[in-house]
Amino acid sequence: MKKSYLEMSKEELLQLKAALQEDFKTEEAKGHSLNMARGKPGRAQLELAMPMLDILNSQSDMNTILGNDTRNYGDLDGIGECRRLMADMMEVQKDNVIVCGNSSLNIMYDTIARSMAFGVNGSTPWFKLDSVKFLCPVPGYDRHFQITEQFGIEMIPIPMDSNGPDMDLVEKYVNNDASVKGIWCVPKYSNPAGISYSDEVVLRFAHLKPAAEDFRIYWDNAYCIHHLYKDIQDKILNILDECTKAGNPDMVYIFASTSKISFPGSGVSAIATSEKNLDYILSKMTVQTIGHDKINQLRHVRFFNGIDGLHEHMKKHADILRPKFEAVLEELDNELAGLDIGTWVKPRGGYFISFNAMPGCAKSIVAKCRQLGVILTAAGATYPYGNDPQDSNIRIAPSFPSPEEMAVASKVFVLCVKLASVEKLLENK
Amino acid sequence: MKKSYLEMSKEELLQLKAALQEDFKTEEAKGHSLNMARGKPGRAQLELAMPMLDILNSQSDMNTILGNDTRNYGDLDGIGECRRLMADMMEVQKDNVIVCGNSSLNIMYDTIARSMAFGVNGSTPWFKLDSVKFLCPVPGYDRHFQITEQFGIEMIPIPMDSNGPDMDLVEKYVNNDASVKGIWCVPKYSNPAGISYSDEVVLRFAHLKPAAEDFRIYWDNAYCIHHLYKDIQDKILNILDECTKAGNPDMVYIFASTSKISFPGSGVSAIATSEKNLDYILSKMTVQTIGHDKINQLRHVRFFNGIDGLHEHMKKHADILRPKFEAVLEELDNELAGLDIGTWVKPRGGYFISFNAMPGCAKSIVAKCRQLGVILTAAGATYPYGNDPQDSNIRIAPSFPSPEEMAVASKVFVLCVKLASVEKLLENK
Fold first, then answer.
1. Nearest to A58 among B54, B60, B295 (CB)
2. A295 vs B263: CB contact, 8 Å cut-off?
3. What's the average pLDDT block by block, 10 residues per block, for chain A (429 residues)?
4. Which residues are within 8 A (CB) of B285 and not within 5 positions of it... i.e. 6 or more apart?
5. Alpha helices in A177-293 (DSSP H)
6. What ipTM was estimated for this complex?
7. β-strand pairing of A133-138 with A180-185
8. How far is B93 from chain A (nearest CA, A)?
9. pTM for the whole thing?
10. Distance of residue A257 Cα from the nearest chain B Cα, in angstroms
């Protein structure tokens, strides 16, 4: 059993620090160049979808099942068979889905932009309001927070535990404050915590009684089928169904894409919501564009050949990703367990491992890693305005480097965690 | 020589009307179903780009010249070689170009939306202003007008002649009214008039002295290489160069796409403007999306293999489109010349023929054509708010039907023009 750093004397800490500094110099001399900053698929994952490029060729029938030519203008809401595929993936009905371009982030941005400019289904445009607020479960996805920040929306952090956001707090805000217009959620294998919302949390979401008629849940189901294991897979309740049952049929927008299934940047994205919401969105979207890339939609439909094909494909991704996650987790377990200088959750899917360092250490750890050539997401990025009040949370993205590189990067990471923690503890000795 | 309708007596007109009504019944009995409403490429044109689908396959090198993997995230502003291709097409420098998604209309929409929300390079967001106005050369592109209408921007029609917009009026508004923030232009083979701006017009644009610092020219060069003939091709002055020379380097946004070169909906689009403007756009766009479809950019680059390849490809389009335009023009010449009931211009490129009926006849003509099964763009659509004060302009889109169908549709069209004109003339007899 290792000795907790918290129980060490000043003398012991100083001795440890000296040893860690030696290790630090050794690693520095190696000149690492590794990146764990972003949830980017690795090369082997990209190879998985290469046969998709053979699916359509100059001899292909380019018509949809209904006989529409995918090469020409039309089908603003996406071709029927791709709406079906995305609906199956998102576990909703086809009529509740619009397939868009290559980026679900872009759909989210446009959804916020549209609400700012025009309101939601006839409500007052948010630009005309003195105050617009969003709830932001933390730690969360930095790009969500950047969208609301860009539009000057006030962000309120909501703590998360292993069941999801603190629903007492969510209910307090949503049900009482009409300036609260939304909440950002990554409900499954969350970014970055890797947790999935419990049934109770989803049900409490569905039964919210928003003070604002134009309050919506922004349900970014980015990792809906992105499991790491075959035997243990998280399952969350269907938020659209539950909202409908609870008398809140229009309260949720669900977003998803194939960016981490086919190709990042060349996938298809979709929004799922009530038909009433879709009608409003389409009434604006029809002025924004004539339509999205339907040839790419057809390519996806024919390649995956239905939801079963999607799931089969995701197993191949899991086989590539799992060893990378395990390389990190093994190192964390081996090196940090029992030291009381950090906590982490072992995720069953998604793209991230969330590490909580001792308060006041995250920035120092990220800086030290950078000094050793290992790039991490900026400390604080997982909080609105980049401000982690505890300076504790670090998002680790193991997907891009190889498992071997991940092992090296993890060694560097734990070294920096140890050194930063010792330095922090010595401040108060 | 045919007798002008204007010179006919009531008796002659009544006789003519009876004969035309007989023809109308004959055509009605045929049950036509033809569409000349939108600038949609025809099937044969779509076939031209089918070999593009063979360009990338599972064995392809997917890296850019710089070694970036097009399959992964990155290159927000587009891959370098596609920026070069679009720059060459738009006759600007690569550094002045961002390549975006599949729709230049979407770029225009987002550019307006961004200006509404955030202003232009630091100016006051338009939403905070009491009045925002756009100048709209007429007849113009209905989808431009729909964008500005959706955002509540006041649209001021500006008459056009065969040289372009009435520049006296443009200068009067732009140089004196700080609420005038933009002007919609289709400078080459304009939609729908088919005319190209004269050098004098372009120069007067470049030398505007806008009262508003955030005034921009929205230069939709949709038909920049869309010639119909090999020997007579319009050439317009380079607006970005001329603006720079005139001390207005940031005053113009240029838009273009390959929607009518490769595939509508599956092409690539681009914006060209000053680097200062691009920096500002990218500072917002980086929150809106992680990037556009770079695999499709690579597909376009490798298929067209440079600007010469683009031009060669456009010759094939011209060969398909020319007979369709000629079928309409021949019918107009044969049947309407000398009757004094309509004028039209023979375009040398683009996608439309603009027909000016006798005042007060456009709606009637379009309705009659619809009754005979020939769908035209709604009368008035070429004017802001769908309001053609003369009720005169009709946009004919000859691209989608076959030449044989176009011949039939044109016969129907001239019949309806004649009948509507006779009815109008009889009102005042």
1. B54
2. yes
3. 92 97 97 91 97 98 97 96 98 98 98 98 97 98 98 98 97 98 98 97 98 98 97 96 98 98 97 98 98 98 98 98 96 97 96 97 98 96 97 96 93 98 94
4. B76, B98
5. 199-206, 239-245, 275-288
6. 0.97
7. parallel
8. 25
9. 0.97
10. 13
